[in-house]
Specification:
alpha+beta; Arylamine N-acetyltransferase fold; about 25% strand; Papain-like_cys_pep_sf; Arylamine_N-AcTrfase; Arylamine N-acetyltransferase
Length: about 290
């Protein structure tokens, strides 16, 4: 496998990226040419290897999103992250490989009405290949598509057994939906306006520090697998399978460190595990995170 790359752009500051270490972390040893097949393979490998989690926020630890910090956490230390971390890292990888990648900001719907304008705060990516604008998001948790979705009104795409649809709303926004047994489930909405590293930094600060953020209110850890998807929201461990089947059980606060290790592949320092146990014992449920298990 060759790791020869194009010159990185200033936008993503991808020069410090340790590309071989990242590829080792996700287990990708296939082609690196900037094609749609490569993009699909990288998305799948990234999601298989790196979970979605916001544990540093409940631990009261900072969540820096410069590329050195993000790759140290998600690549070298084997941790996960949330959207601003995942998509910053992934954009830097794509940029380094010669993809045309920019960022956008989205509004989380999580089943809500697309006509209700909630806050902008979720980071997503746009990758343009041969004139087609592809929506890419490796940082949305267990709901996320495991492949790119074209910005084409009415486009329906299966990423493995999970089906998605991209629609234009009455407000001329893009709305991404996930098929569930009861019908299409609204995930996010966004426009084609780009956002920049400074915008992502502001959204990241709010997500990691605001008392109203779901990531400061309770433990949130997800894994977006091919055939099985799992979430730990607070002390509720949920397993999702294609077709709508789901199982749910409550775990004890003392089970948190072992659950993170065995279910999500997260081995935290012992002191962090103890702190999470104490947090889980004392924290109240977050309405936003609770909706993720609905």
């Amino acid at each position: 496998m060759s790791t020869t790359t194009t010159h990185p752009s200033a936008l993503w500051d991808s020069a410090p990226l340790d590309l071989p270490a990242y590829l080792g972390r996700i287990g990708h040893d296939g082609p690196l040419t900037p094609t749609l097949d490569t993009l699909r393979a990288l998305i799948r490998a990234h999601l298989d290897a790196i979970p979605f989690e916001g544990l540093d926020s409940v631990l009261g630890r900072p969540v820096p999103i410069d590329i050195e910090s993000v790759q140290d956490k998600l690549v070298r230390r084997g941790r996960g992250g949330y959207c601003h971390e995942h998509n910053t890292l992934f954009a830097s990888v794509l940029d380094r490989l010669g993809f045309q990648v920019t960022a956008r900001s989205a509004r989380m719907l999580v089943g809500g009405d697309e006509h209700e304008m909630g806050p902008v705060g979720h980071t997503i990516l746009s990758v343009v290949l041969e004139g087609v604008d592809w929506h890419v998001d490796v940082g949305i948790g267990n709901f996320g598509p495991r492949g790119p979705i074209p910005l084409v009104d009415g486009a329906e795409v299966s990423t493995g057994p999970w089906e998605y649809r991209m629609d234009r709303s009455a407000r001329d926004h893009w709305v991404l939906r996930l098929r569930r047994p009861e019908g299409w489930f609204n995930l996010i909405q966004f426009t084609e306006e780009p956002c920049y590293r400074a915008d992502i930094a502001v959204h990241n600060y709010v997500a990691s520090t605001d008392p109203g953020s779901p990531f400061t209110q309770q433990i949130v850890v997800h894994h977006d697998g091919e055939d099985v998807r799992r979430t730990l929201n607070g002390l509720t461990l949920t397993t999702y399978r294609p077709g709508g089947e789901r199982t749910r059980r409550e775990i004890a606060a003392d089970e948190v460190p072992e659950t993170l290790r065995t279910v999500f592949g997260l081995a935290l320092p012992e002191e962090h595990g103890r702190a999470l146990v104490e947090f889980a014992r004392s924290s109240a449920a977050s309405p936003w995170a609770a909706s993720l298990t609905a």
